[in-house]
Design goal:
The chain is an alpha/beta fold. The chain has helices spanning about 10-20, 25-40, 55-65, 80-90, 105-115, 130-135, 150-165, 180-200, 215-230, 240-250, 255-260, 280, 300-310, 340, 350-370, 380-395, 405-410, and strands at about 45-50, 70-75, 95, 120-125, 145-150, 170-175, 210-215, 230-235, 250-255, 265-270, 290, 310-315, 320-325, 330-335, 375-380. It is globular, with a radius of gyration of 22 Å.
Length: about 425
């Protein structure tokens, strides 16, 4: 078995952390138990490009329990937990190609290593594997039956491929599942983003002005958590509906050229490019902290920031200080990469339980239905989404009401009026 990890001596520590996360993932546990008996993925080659964390490890173990031959690589150079990569490779027998802090060349060599397993199912977080398959490894496309995509950024890329007519196999958008975006994006990103900022800076949120760039599900989570920590929270948006929602939720909404002048902490969660730019850096307060919780590190125009700086230095781990000509200092966290995974541990296992349950069940669904599917992006089937929610509620010792026969009849008829 081939793999590329930082240090095999971290294996024991990785096993302990993977098992700790598993305690908080009861839905995935139940799927793993069934997969172990039924082997729905028997002999299927899976190339997974995901953040190499304790939660991801439990998904990989579940896929292997289902009979899959899994190869894992990192979906971001700074999101790997090296002890987890060691445990997966050395203890669980899952080839893993991931080293925290790997350079761009190594990152792409790891993507290629996963692709060279000749996958029949791809499992992406950001669509990098899909992109390489369609550009550099087109001969491998004939083996692929289907895939899944975890995050908003990846879904945007895949839908662009679908629109261009270049997407060569069906892919299920895990991000569109209600049990993913309503919980993982909102509660997971909200909590873990602030966790990453605090670990990197030890800054007090109370009394600060926090600017959240984008009010999608991730922005909703970050904004609500920042307010909960006592911060004055401002939202910037381009969508009038989302902007209106942010106002109705009690946040101030304004354009970035105004927010840039009053913010102490900036969090980008848009999935778009250069939402913080040179004109914004020039008017920021001295000591401003800027970070990103979107998938790629393009949301902050780092080259523009560097060109404006008279000096750049690392002041502590994950904190780079840019001194501008006006004497103001701006602090960039984690090189603009996912702050929650670069400086912290990512989402809590309890919320990833639902996202990765979607991954496992969608992979199973794809194998059963790929021949009937077109080359496009599909949503997670509603029955899978609802079953995951039911299992999660059950694990939390919560239960639901059941419609009476009279209620079912009423809801399915039109004859009864006022």
């Amino acid at each position: 078995m081939k793999y590329d990890i930082k240090d095999a001596r971290l294996t024991k520590q990785g096993i302990q952390r993977i098992e700790w996360a598993d305690r908080e993932m009861p839905v995935l546990q139940s799927i793993r138990e069934r997969f172990s008996k039924q082997k729905p993925l028997k002999g299927i080659r899976v190339a997974a490009c995901l953040h190499v964390t304790t939660e991801t490890a439990n998904l990989m173990i579940t896929l292997k329990a289902g009979g899959a031959n899994v190869t894992l690589c990192a979906s971001n150079p700074l999101s790997t937990q090296d002890d987890v990569a060691a445990a997966l490779s050395k203890h669980y027998g899952i080839p893993t190609f991931a080293i925290k802090g790997e350079n761009n060349k190594t990152y792409y060599s790891h993507l290629e290593a996963a692709i060279k397993s000749r996958p029949q199912i791809t499992m992406d977080d950001g669509a990098d594997v899909v992109g390489l398959l369609h550009s550099k490894f087109r001969d491998y496309l004939k083996d692929v039956k289907g895939g899944t995509e975890e995050t908003t950024t990846g879904v945007v890329r895949l839908r662009a491929m679908q629109k261009d007519g270049t997407l060569q196999y069906p892919i299920i958008s895990i991000n569109d599942a209600d049990t993913k975006h309503m919980f993982d994006n909102r509660y997971g990103t909200g909590q873990s983003t602030l966790d990453g900022i605090i670990r990197a800076t030890n800054v007090l949120f109370a009394g600060k002005t926090v600017v959240v760039v984008g009010y999608g599900w991730c922005g909703r989570g970050a904004a609500s958590r920042a307010r909960g920590m006592g911060a004055r929270t401002v939202v910037t948006e381009i969508d009038p509906l989302k902007g209106l929602e942010a106002v109705m939720d009690g946040f101030e909404v304004m354009p970035m050229n105004k927010a840039a002048q009053i913010g102490d902490i900036f969090i980008t969660v848009t999935g778009n490019k250069h939402v913080l730019r040179g004109e914004h850096f020039k008017v920021m307060r001295n000591g401003a902290i800027i970070c990103n919780s979107g998938h790629f590190n393009v949301e902050i125009d780092i080259p523009a920031l560097r060109s404006l700086a008279t000096s750049v230095k690392n002041v502590k781990e994950f904190v780079e200080e840019y001194k501008l000509k006006n004497g103001h200092k701006i602090h960039l966290l984690a090189d603009g990469r996912l702050i929650n995974l670069a400086a912290a541990e990512g989402h809590p296992a309890s919320v990833m339980d639902m996202s990765f349950a979607n991954q496992a069940l969608s992979a199973e669904y794809m194998l059963s239905h790929y021949s009937d599917l077109d080359r496009r992006v599909y949503e997670v089937p509603k029955n899978i989404d609802r079953e995951i929610a039911r299992l999660k509620l059950k694990s939390m010792h919560m239960s639901l009401d059941v419609l009476t026969e009279e209620q079912e009849k009423y809801l399915s008829s039109w004859q009864e009026g006022t």
